[in-house]
Amino acid sequence: MLNKKTIILGVTGGIAAYKAADLASKLIQSGASVRVIMTRNAQEFITPLTFEAITSSAVVTDMFQTAAEHRINHIALAEIADAVLIAPATADIMAKLATGIADDMLTTTVLATRAPVILAPSMHTQMYQNPVTQENESRLKARGFYIIPPATGRLASGGYGPGRLPDTEVIIGHLKAVLGRSGDLAGMNIIVTAGGTQEPIDPVRVITNRSSGKMGYAIAEAARDRGARVTLISAPVSIPAPPVVDIIRVETAVQMKEAVQRAVSGADALIMAAAVADFQARDIAENKIKKEKGNLTLELTGTPDILAELNGDFLKIGFAAESQDLLENAQRKLIAKKLDLIVANNITEENSGFGSDTNKVTLIDKNGVVQNLPLLSKREVADRILDQVVRLLNLKKSNNNPAQKNTPA
Ligand code: CTP
Question: What is the pLDDT of residues 5-59, one digit of tens each?
């Protein structure tokens, strides 16, 4: 989604300025065109040459510019920007922007642009928590600036607290969420489940499955990037949480059911990508089961079928992970669980299904096969599923308003 987008990266003079080089590099790798503006202080921490090498473009600084060059540059950059991202943003730049001071290339560009402006504050904790900085941050938010909350951790200036520049991936997640705000899922409330639930046997052991959560997390990210408000209900996984997504962590099928039940009120779609355990221990041992007991027989009982049991005014999208009779089994689940769409996933295909970064799926709705997709990255599969969510939501809207059915959009 960053492909062909023009990002103006403003770098100000904080100790985290060096991390902006990695940010610029990752943006370029995602296909964005990056133009860097550095403040005078930023150049004390990192040289323009670094950014020139990474972005293959001239870096704009206040040095050696005639008044005419200056005017042309900042207006030109302000106009071509899809977003202006200031990372790191010092207390000083926040103060200037909050009070409308425009005395250098970066501040004048921000004043002249219509593109969204995103700031990633990074400074010493006390400075960040100082009422002046907090007031500036509130003012900036009120004026429509988007603030990426600083990460909490050890700071270069010593001490521990909020003020660290978030990881590059987190900054890019926020940027994508801002760029996607007017996407085809804008205003939609989407609930996604992911990962394999864990059903305890005793205090140390669980019954679980091979789900990595990658498919569900990819759907959550893709929905966020298309403008949706996303709640991700996640069983334990070892992948990072997508930024700008509300995450609810659960362990068991019963906990997942309760979380989904709460989340679906007011939702437009529920996408159940989680591999919910079908069985749970009838009794959970209070203490660790010792091995000297010899053979062990566990009595298992069924878990609630979340998708089948929850109905409401939202689209229901399920997955069918099958090792045989893919389409027949998927179609049967679509009907039995009253789904609007099922993603039939052949888990025996190479590079498809559990743990892999790619997936080969067939999308089926109540009229039959909608799309038979080739092997794609999980992110691409996520977008194809969401294309169907958009189609089904539009269909539902036109069925609810038959008068508008034939009115061109
Ligand atoms: N699912 C659910 N609750 C369960 C089991 C499954 O909500 N207790 C959901 C899954 O998230 C998935 C869909 O139902 O979206 C189908 O899951 P799958 O494991 O393929 O099917 P099951 O219904 O468990 O049937 P079977 O194990 O017999 O294949």
Answer: 999 999 999 999 999 999 999 999 999 999 999 999 999 999 999 999 999 999 9
Pick from 50, 147, 144: nearest CA to 91: 147
CA–CA gap between residue 311 and residue 34 (Å, rounded): 46
Parallel, antiparallel, or unpaired: how do β-strands 246-249 and 229-234 relate?
parallel
Exposed/middle/buried for residue 8 (C-beta within 10 Å: 0-12, 13-18, 19+): buried
**Residue 88, preceding peptide bond in cis (omega within 30° of 0):** yes
Question: Does residue 342's CB lie within 6 angstroms of at least one atom of ligand 1?
Answer: no
CA of 210 to the centre of ligand 1 (A): 14
Which of 272, 310, 348, when mutated, tests ligand 1's pocket best, judged by the most ligand atoms within 8 Å of its CB?
272
Separation CA 314–CA 319 (nearest Å): 16
Whether the CB of 305 sits within 6 Å of ligand 1: yes
**pLDDT per residue as tens digits for the range 119-178:** 999 999 999 999 999 999 999 999 999 999 999 998 877 789 999 999 999 999 999 999
Is 41 among the residues known to form the active site? no
Q: What is the DSSP letter of 288?
A: P
CB of residue 146 inside a 6 A radius of ligand 1: no
Spell out where 155-219 has E strands: 160-164, 189-194, 199-200, 206-207
DSSP designation for 302: E
**Distance (Å, rounded) from C-alpha 95 to C-alpha 93?**
5
